[in-house]
Structures
1.
Amino acid sequence: MCRLFLFAVCLLVTSLAIADERPNVVWIIADDLGPELGCYGYPDVATPNLDRLAASGRRYNRAFSTAPVCSASRTAFQTGLYQTTVGGHHHDTHDKRVLPDSIPTVTGLMQKAGYFVCNGRGISPPEAKLAKSHLNFVYDARKFFDGVDWSQRGEGQPFFAQVQITEPHREFVKSDRPRPAAPIPPYYPEHPVTRADWANYLASIEALDQKVGAVLDRLESEGFARNTLVIFFGDHGRPHVRGKQWLYDGGLHTPLIVRWPGKIKAGEVTDGLASLLDLMPTTLAAAGAKVPELPGMNLLDANWTGHAQVFGARDRCGDAIDRIRSLRTRDFKYIRNFHPETPYMQHSGYKKLSYPVETLMKVLHAEGRWDSPFMAKARPMEELYDLMNDPYEMTNLAADPEQAERLTEMREAVNQWIKET
């Protein structure tokens, strides 16, 4: 009997030791961020902390959100399912739904796996209230998360922390310099207003970088860095005209950097297509939790080479009603406009108040001093872009006879995706 008792105690101690060795997981989420970082090759922006994170982990050059606006995108990566699947596709849905039991969340599954799940700023001492979650379904934030900070967990308990950083969401930090060497997408007018707005965006990224550095330093000082999987990403693309709220790469392309000492080689770079839907299966797999059937992939799987294609959806954003779907492969982007009668520059109260370059574009166009297809009064039903030769998606090839077969294939792929999801 004594031996059996000692054996049981040994098993318990062993199981606790194994549990204690499970990695912590930290998501560092930036609000509205494109790949304008030093480690992504962008000049005239100082991001030393994100650069060192990339140098010690893996950088994903082609990572994309499923929506170009925060609440829809966050709904997707917290459930591991497309926002259109769970009814969270309209930005700031008013008639929110309760998720059925058949739809899991990454927080719920990590809680079931024994993790302390928190949502805060990653600062010590922590703030009193939970940080932004911004989801398009009914949930009790105090149950969805166990607390604000990992310091509140039980002794030895592994933690899954979501760290929310406001930057570079508007309103921007004011830049202390003009940054004339910073390249600006060619679909914007070259103008002092454009330059000033873009410089402020870069200054906001630098503020973001400082906050990321503080989180990384804290993990190091508290002895967690070695056994923590850190995943840094933006909830969607950059907060600029033809970026946020649009399915061009400007609205969907976001940085993704993953660090896990001893598990990921330092300085790795991959060009495979990644989706923010990959975050949930990656997190669960790292924690040793069961991964449900999801459209995303485990980014850390030894056989991971990326998705063959990634999909995006944009629906109502504030008072701008729309429905757009997209498909991106490595080399091409297909966009379907379900309301071609609506201009690209339809009224958006949010953008009218917050986006000075939108007003600039409208004024210059009205004066006959600047033009762009984006100023048209109607849109084509379909758009097709050769991303290798046209990375800024400025020449629509949908009517090109040489692209007819590709157009048909991508159209049918979107049709099938809509049916399936």
2.
Amino acid sequence: MSSNPFVLAAVDDLFFLIQVKDAAKRTGFGLKNGQTPEAILNLAAQSPALIVVDLHSQKLDPLATIRQLKSPDSPAAKIPILAYLSHVQVELGQSARDAGANIVVPRSAFLRTLNETL
């Protein structure tokens, strides 16, 4: 278990990663970024306060990762997941909710939602 509260980011885009880091810092959280499904699952076992998932990630299958994180035997099953995507991809958003994402927002509302969530 990690003693310092942190946000786990499954984010490829450097611009958004910096934005997540800044929002986390402003609200008293650290940031850890996972670039592979294995790294994300290992970091999730350290009990982050929130997991942020880019649904357009090229480095992992975001929906499969969300399903793994939310599976009943996962130590991260109860950790909230905030996922973001392009506003025109309604079906992808519903698929993310079906996989277990707690909050799904368009990129345009992502930072405002992140600040509110934290």
